[in-house]
Amino acid sequence: MIADPLYARAAATPDRPFLLFGDLTITYGAMAALVDNAVERLATQGVTAGQTVAMMVGNRPGFLVAWFALSELGAITVPLNTALVGEGLRYLLEQSEASLLIAEEEFLPALPASAPALLPMDELLEIAADPERPPRRRLALPGGTANAILYTSGTTGLPKGAVIPNACYELAGEHMAAALELTDEDRILLFLPLFHANPQMYGVMSCLRAGAALALLPRFSASRLLEDARRYGASGFTYVGTVLSILAKRLTEPERDHSLRWAVGGGAPPGVWREIEERLGIAVRELYGMTETGGWVSMNTAQAAKFGSVGAARPDTELCVVDADDTQLPPGEKGEIVVRPRRPGLMFDGYWKKPEATVAATRNLWLHTGDRGMIDADGFLHFDGRMKELIRRAGEMIAPVEIETALLKHPAVQDCAVVGVQDDILGEEIKAVIVPRPGFDPLELPAFLTGRIPAFMCPRFVELRTEIPKTATQKVQRHLLHDHPGDIVDLGRHKG
């Protein structure tokens, strides 16, 4: 059960801080009491084991209270992206078969008429409970019991709900706490949305495992991150790649007036990784993974790290790279990354109500990630982009991430994404969608990229936009970039 360490710490060290939120400090003992209160309240709403309960709740203590309480009842939490509206929200509420929706008032206008019964997320779930109340008798549930349904971002097609068992969360906490060498003196800064696996697994569960404290922020703010880190005495934070990219652009000089020691997450370009380490003096623990793999597959740790890689295999995880026939490839050769657990409960239990998708993803006893990469001679994994994102130009298979990494080195490129566009002769041509800074001239790109990437990787088309469309978890929605809604510069027409 995911709340086991919470109750253990509440019994042993009830006055130790567990959650810091604004000026509020909630101890382990107080958090356990809040969860007990919420269990009673949810039970009166008819919540029982096996039911799915959706949540539209931002980063606030009540999110954790409700999640832990639902787990205590054996219910399945369905945390939803709080930006959802319209058909997308209706689909997830219906597909998850949610019997109840816990939601904050600000999200109520987005709810469809078909929404399930509503339980408002109000202060009642966050008001201090009676410390003298007798302990509640807890349910004993096996580790394989489903805890949550986490919907994939749906960068293409409809989202799929990954069923995450309790054991998956528990092992995530165990492995991440060990990898980061956490102690009960650590304070973890969380600002990514709690509906995402990243803060749940890398932050909340590792914190519980170590008996550490969480400093929870409503959202990410590059301008306030170091101020917040100093305020709470944070030792580290979790990230997605764009967080570090934004910080690197903002931090022009070294900054050491803080308590941070590490940052853990995925998707940081190597150049950004190095800049953050040099400017903040912290260790960037870049990893690779997806929701289905229990949060991550490989990770750079204090014990084993290689710059530019996404680390060595996580404990209890078997990892390899295969060709189109699922034949394992030797070190140094690129193919699809596949993974499988060496113990039960490490990874997801399949896609909710989608058996065909589950079978397809786990064919030949391997979870097929759909990602391209290679394992080097030292056993470190190198990520090379999504298989479906690869651009096939004149027979060359091109990973957009290689071009994007080069483009982001341009001082007048704020953000970018690279996609393939249909070409009658070459199969596909390369288009770079760029969010420019003042002074950007697309005609200068060929000269800038010369020597940085091979000539066959240089974009033919450049499209300027004010922003790159991304999911709430900062994955680029490439399927929205293939069309040309804006002005296009054809660099092929400006050669020589």
The span between the termini is: 66 Å
Q: Can you summarize the main beta sheet?
A: 9 strands, mixed
As residue ranges, the low-confidence spans are: none
CATH superfamily of the largest domain: ANL, N-terminal domain
**Strand line-up of the largest beta sheet:** 2-1-10-9-11-12-13-14-15
How is this fold's topology laid out?
Elements: H1 4-12, E1 17-21, E2 24-27, H2 28-44, E3 52-56, H3 61-72, E4 76-79, H4 86-95, E5 100-103, E6 117-120, E7 146-151, E8 161-165, H5 166-179, E9 187-190, H6 197-210, E10 213-216, H7 225-232, E11 236-240, H8 241-250, E12 262-266, H9 270-280, E13 283-288, E14 298-299, E15 312-313, E16 317-322, E17 335-341, H10 355-361, E18 367-375, E19 381-386, E20 391-393, E21 396-398, H11 400-407, E22 413-423, E23 427-436, H12 445-449, E24 461-464, E25 488-490
Parallel strand pairs: 1-10, 3-4, 3-5, 5-6, 9-10, 9-11, 11-12, 12-13, 23-24
Antiparallel strand pairs: 1-2, 7-8, 13-14, 14-15, 16-17, 17-18, 18-19, 20-21, 22-23, 24-25
Pfam family, one: AMP-binding
Domain AMP-dependent synthetase/ligase: 8-352
Domain AMP-binding enzyme C-terminal: 402-475
Summarize the structure.
By secondary structure, the chain is α/β, with parallel strands linked by helices. The protein contains twelve helices and 25 strands.
Provide structural commentary.
This protein has 496 residues and is of the alpha/beta class. It folds into 2 domains: 4-375, Rossmann fold (3-Layer(aba) Sandwich), CATH 3.40.50; 399-494, ANL, C-terminal domain (GMP Synthetase, Chain A, domain 3), CATH 3.30.300.30. 25% of the residues lie in helices and 26% in strands. The strands form 6 sheets. A 9-stranded mixed beta sheet has the order 2-1-10-9-11-12-13-14-15, sandwiched between helices. Strands 4-3-5-6 form a 4-stranded parallel beta sheet, with helices on one face. Strands 16-17-18-19 form a 4-stranded antiparallel beta sheet. α5 (166-179) packs across α6. The mean pLDDT is 92.
